[in-house]
Amino acid sequence: MDFAYTNEDEAFRDELTAWLAKHLRPFLETWAGDDDAGDARSAAGVMRSMERRRAWQRTLAEGRWAAIHWPQAWGGRDATITQNVLYAEVMAAHRTPGIYNANGLWQIGPMILAWGTEEQKRRWIPNILHADDHWCQGFTEPDAGSDLANLRTTAIRDGDDYVLRGQKIWISSAHLAKWGLFLVRTDPTAIERGAKHEGITALIVDLEVDGVEIRPIRDIAGEEMFCEVFFDGARVPVAYRLGGEGQGWAVAMGTLGKERVGTAGLAIGMRSDLDAMISLARSTNPGALADPALRERIARAHIEIEYTKLLNYRALSKILKNQKNWPEVPLAKLQWSHLAQTLAELAIDLLGPAGMMAKGSDFAVDGGAWNRLYVFQRYTSIGAGTTEVQKNIIADRALKLPKR
Ligand SMILES: Cc1cc2nc3c(=O)[nH]c(=O)nc-3n(C[C@H](O)[C@H](O)[C@H](O)COP(=O)(O)OP(=O)(O)OC[C@H]3O[C@@H](n4cnc5c(N)ncnc54)[C@H](O)[C@@H]3O)c2cc1C
After folding, report:
1. By C-alpha distance, which of 398, 402, 324, 382 is closest to 140?
2. Within-domain flag for 122
3. Distance of CA 141 from the midpoint of ligand 1 (Å)
4. Of 166, 271, 275, 348, which has the fewest CB atoms closer than 10 Å, so is most exposed?
5. Per-residue confidence (pLDDT) for residue 313, from 0 to 100
6. Do 226 and 309 share a structural domain?
């Protein structure tokens, strides 16, 4: 890959930096006191945090900075992958707030743009972009996670509707969502026929209709941000189908591909996490920075961040050239989760006993954000493809190890 940025890329970065210089500080001042995580343990805290995210996404959308990878005609900038990387770097360096519809902007929107009819695009794309409603992605089931094609929630055609029955699990923020992109089985015979990737269909579901029940699950951080979703006779118009009947697997694979590019971008934010924890340690627990063992871990983290960045560039360069995505893409995913957890542990040790204090304690550092990160980062070895499954891909496709 050529590491030099083009003039267009430099101009893109300068324009974004100038826009942030003008809009970020006034936004943060308006929402001063409401941190991004909010008090995610209380319903009021979650809603406040979501309203802040909605406001920030709308601000970004006004500047055409919310969905840079979308076509210009739909409010995007047709950004190249390199520009997406630059965007992630600049946003991370400025520690910008979270957005309201990350799933919608990164995964579902691009799928609607790729597979949707004109009417579907007109109906839902502006809705996602301007954060009118919250969206979730409903793929996983109790017996269909890593083996997603085993999904069994049925959608049986009845006139102009599909009737849904079954259960989804681990669906992020479904309890806050009005809409979701769900994978369902329109041909229940496919699994028995040994053709489980067939007969799967993507439906956009209005989660407020009868026959949908959403139950939040309390996670390790004490928050209720992902959910079980039960369908018991919920009716979804055929007009809400994305792509053809039975094309759901192809729709989903496009979505997961976007998620993988997204995780490559997340690794870029780790540089600013490391800088932030060092500067916090300087003010709250300065002795830690003189500890030789901790100093070595900081140096190691610094080096790992640098080579993870290079690995991500290599992974992205392969995607750019339409080359096979292994081993770099699964390696980048593995490295991201390893590093996310290493940094979260380092933060706790750097901040000392107060680093372990959760939100609500008088002694909590940074509102308990680092304690939350410490427990929550466990998810990085599960989400976007588990560690074991990524290792299987590398063993099988890159190293071509024999199968037992
Ligand atoms: C924070 C969080 C948010 C999520 N949000 C969403 C969401 O919004 N929408 C959604 O649809 N899903 C979501 N998920 C679900 C996620 O996609 C699944 O958890 C993931 O796909 C793994 O599936 P599973 O939980 O069923 O685990 P399983 O697939 O049952 O895996 C259990 C264990 O077995 C291992 N394993 C599985 N297969 C193999 C194999 N072939 N070889 C070796 N080891 C194997 C796994 O690595 C894992 O350690 C979320 C999960 C998390 C943690």
Report:
1. 382
2. no
3. 9
4. 275
5. 79
6. no
- Confidence at residue 314, expressed as pLDDT on a 0 to 100 scale: 83
Nearest residue by C-alpha to atom 21 in ligand 1? 145
Instruction: Indicate if 280 and 333 belong to the same structural domain.
Output: yes
The 8-class DSSP code of residue 357 comes to: P
pLDDT of residue 93: 86
Cβ of 367 closer than 6 Å to ligand 1, yes or no, is no
Distances (CA, A) of 230 to 149, 180, 190, 209, 237: 19, 13, 22, 12, 18
Nearest alpha carbon, ligand 1 atom 3: 172
Per-residue pLDDT, 33? 72
Q: Are residues 318 and 378 in the same domain?
A: yes
Q: Tens of pLDDT along 48-93?
A: 889 999 999 999 999 999 999 999 999 999 998 888 888 988 998 8
Whether 325 lines ligand 1, by a CB cut-off of 6 Å, is no
Residue 151, ligand 1, Cβ within 6 A = no
Residue among 137, 139, 140, 391 whose CB has most ligand 1 atoms within 8 A, to mutate: 140
Q: What's residue 47's pLDDT? A: 81
Ranges of residues in the chain whose predicted pLDDT is under 70: 1-3, 34-42, 255-268, 320
Q: Whole-angstrom Cα distance, residue 161 to residue 276?
A: 51
122 token code pair: 């007109």
- Per-residue pLDDT, 371: 92
**CB–CB of 342/302 below 8 Å?**
no
Rg (CA), the chain: 22
Long-range (24+ apart) CB contacts under 8 A made by 379-387 are: 380/336, 380/337, 380/340, 380/341, 381/337, 381/341, 384/256, 384/259, 384/260, 384/262, 384/263, 384/333, 385/146, 385/256, 385/260, 385/330, 385/333, 386/145, 386/146, 387/334, 387/337
The tokens describing 103, both together, are 């799933």
Q: Note the pLDDT of residue 262.
A: 54
Tell me which residue of 306, 299, 304 sits closest to 278, measured CA to CA: 299
The answer to whether 288 and 281 are in contact (CB under 8 A) is yes
* pLDDT confidence of residue 275: 92
Residues pairing with 229 in the sheet: 168, 214
Catalogue the active-site residues.
259
Calpha distance 180→138 (Å, rounded): 6
User: 10 Å Cβ neighbour count for 25?
Assistant: 11
Please check whether residues 38 and 140 belong to one and the same domain: no
Tokens at 157, concatenated: 């055609």
pTM, full prediction: 0.92
Residue 339 lies in a domain: yes
